[in-house]
UniProtKB/TrEMBL annotation:
It comes from the Bacteria. RNA polymerase that catalyzes the synthesis of short RNA molecules used as primers for DNA polymerase during DNA replication. The lineage of its organism: Bacteria, Pseudomonadati, Pseudomonadota, Betaproteobacteria, Burkholderiales. Its EC number is 2.7.7.101. It is an enzyme of class 2 (transferase). GO terms for cellular component: cytoplasm; DNA-directed RNA polymerase complex; primosome complex. The gene is dnaG. GO terms for molecular function: DNA binding; DNA-directed RNA polymerase activity; zinc ion binding. Residues 256-338 form the Toprim domain. SUPFAM superfamilies: DNA primase core, Zinc beta-ribbon. Belongs to the DnaG primase family. Its cofactor is Zn(2+). This is DNA primase. PROSITE patterns: TOPRIM. Binds 1 zinc ion per monomer.
Length: 569
């Protein structure tokens, strides 16, 4: 089914009514009855005392620790990694409901769907063949035993071996399907097809939903290339996927930390040793999409690369990616293993507890990594070197478009090192504005004399409380409220206005796809607490009140000037 399929509200309501949220959540979280609700440890962050509640009557969950909130659909999408359509399909199947009929697909769509299914079947067949080949390849068995792989790990990760098989062994699978699946390639000179993977230890690659999408193969001798991956196909896009994420996502969400390592074997061995937070990029440099995917699950990402020249270069590239998309409230750091260690050898020598401590305590923060890169090969006692440091520092600051607080802190540190002021141009928000026609440019300024909280916390309170008050005022009427495009601790950002009937707010809020937005909207319209209780001290309350008044005035003026229909053109 198309990911863009739109379901009727009546169908979604029926699926929800026939689904026991407690049962669905209880498959992943140990819940205990507490009054009318059920309570347990939150699956979305690490905690020792349970703050996660599930309401069987209202059919929503809420964590008072991290603010996670949603219904049965959002639990499957945010915890189990389903997309929305797949979540609806899964729950409808459990409830014994037939999926609603879609409008007749086009001939092109039908052909693409059939081709994707054939590719998936070919990949599954290849994986079974590679796994069976292990029995007849003592070299592959010896290599895996030498690396310390257990039978359970081999089975879990589906490892196998591609021998010198020939095309005729693939009876029943059309050659064009094998080519579309990336399993065979054609010789440009002779036009003859040959198997892409030969005499290689095979690592199946699954996407986040555990769908087989490709392979990585490692030679057992000195042939080059050492690693060979599936080519880009209709189902496999290297820059969007992460090896091992289907196995790691639960641990990453629970600990809010992800570990990015270099190779497939690093991931496999770390999972075997007991660190299931490890993932790897797929034979390419880390991409923005891969890091964004991790930030949706984790607050902190640790990059662990080898200490050789290639590893250092990979770390530098990852740092350049991280500065462009890491928002305030998220962090990245870099870990270089001592000596000739890789993650496997480090854990073997020092143990898993030492590995975890090393990852969590010894990694270099992104800011220090950037400074180290800027200082490399420069003597700041020389004016020309100091000028080059300042110039490159300005260029670095200019690409930090999502973390103004971090940007200001880094600028201060670079100015201290360079012993000069750095004039950095204002950074435009680089994110695509999904509601460009409805964008309201409102700059939220904090007052420097409010010293009750650290600056980052004050910003969070300002924006959060401004939204809550805007939702509360004029209850019962059609009022504008703020849809934060990215709810994070930013001093300034883009706001989009929308009009919503107060009586339908709860139903509408439950269907908001963005989890951060949904959590704050639902809290605002369902919470019985006084909003003032969320503030710390009268001084901050007065500051927030003034801010809300300013924002409300700008919103009202814009609402009068634009028709509501134009907001969602």
């Amino acid at each position: 089914m198309s990911a863009t399929h739109r379901f009727a509200d009546a169908f979604l309501d029926e699926v929800r009514e026939r689904t026991d949220l407690v049962e669905v959540v209880g498959q992943h979280v140990k819940l205990k009855k507490g009054g009318k609700d059920f309570v347990g440890l939150c699956p979305f962050h690490t905690e020792k005392s349970p703050s996660f509640t599930v309401s069987p009557v209202k059919q929503f969950y809420h964590c008072f620790g991290c603010g996670a909130h949603g219904n049965v659909f959002s639990f499957l999408t945010e915890y189990s990694g389903y997309d929305f359509v797949s979540a609806v399909q899964e729950l409808a199947l459990r409830a014994g409901l037939s999926m609603p009929e879609r409008s007749a697909p086009t001939a092109h769509a039908l052909a693409a769907e059939a081709r994707t299914a054939r590719i998936g079947d070919a990949l599954q067949r290849a994986q079974r063949t590679y796994f069976r080949n292990l029995r007849n390849c003592p070299g592959a068995i010896g290599y895996m035993k030498g690396r310390g792989l257990t039978k359970a790990t081999v089975v879990q990760f589906g490892l196998g071996y591609a021998d010198d098989g020939h095309i005729h062994d693939w009876d029943g699978v059309a050659i064009d399907v094998l080519e579309c699946a990336g399993l065979v390639a054609v010789d440009d000179e002779t036009g003859v097809y040959h198997e892409r993977f030969r005499r290689r230890l095979m690592f199946p690659i699954w996407n986040e939903r555990s769908e087989l999408i490709g392979f990585g193969g490692r030679v057992l001798d000195d042939r080059q290339p050492k690693y060979l991956n599936s080519p880009e196909t209709e189902v496999f896009r290297k820059g969007e996927e992460l090896y091992g994420l289907n196995f790691a996502k639960q641990s990453i969400r629970q600990g809010r930390l992800a570990v990015v390592v270099e190779g497939y074997m690093d991931v496999v061995m770390l999972h075997q040793h007991g660190d299931a937070r490890a993932v790897a990029s797929l034979g390419t440099s880390l991409t923005e999409e891969q890091l964004r995917r991790l930030y949706r699950m984790a607050d902190h990402v640790v990059f662990c690369f080898d200490g050789d020249k290639a590893g250092r270069a990979a770390a530098d590239r990852a740092a350049r990616v991280a500065i462009g998309i890491t928002p305030d409230g998220k962090t990245a750091s870099f870990l270089t293993l001592p000596g000739d260690h890789d993650p496997d050898s480090f854990v073997r020598e020092h143990g898993i507890d030492s590995w975890r401590a090393f990852v969590e305590c010894e990694a270099t923060p992104l800011s220090r990594k950037l400074i180290e890169m800027l200082l490399r090969g420069r003597d700041l006692e020389i004016a020309e070197h100091r000028a080059a440091f300042a110039r490159d520092g300005i260029e670095t600051l200019a690409v930090i478009g999502h973390a103004p607080i971090f940007r200001a802190a880094l600028q201060s540190e670079l100015e201290r090192i360079a012993q000069m002021a750095l004039s950095v141009p204002e950074v435009a928000d680089a994110r695509p504005n999904r509601r460009a026609d409805a964008a309201t440019h409102i700059r939220v300024q904090t007052q420097s004399d409010v010293g009750l909280l650290p600056a980052s916390n004050r910003v969070a309170f300002y924006r959060r409380y401004a939204l809550l008050l805007a939702l509360d005022r004029d209850a019962g009427a059609e009022i504008p409220y703020q849809l934060l495009d990215d709810f994070s601790e930013l001093v300034s950002g883009w706001f989009a206005c929308a009009a919503i009937d107060h009586r339908a707010r709860v139903e509408a809020a439950e269907r908001i796809v963005d989890p951060a937005l949904r959590a704050v909207v639902v809290e605002a319209i369902q919470s019985s607490r006084k909003r003032a209780n969320m503030l710390v001290g009268d001084a901050l309350a007065r500051e927030v009140g003034a801010l809300v008044q300013t924002i409300s005035g700008e919103l009202a003026q814009r609402a009068r000037a634009e028709e509501a229909a134009a907001l969602f053109r």
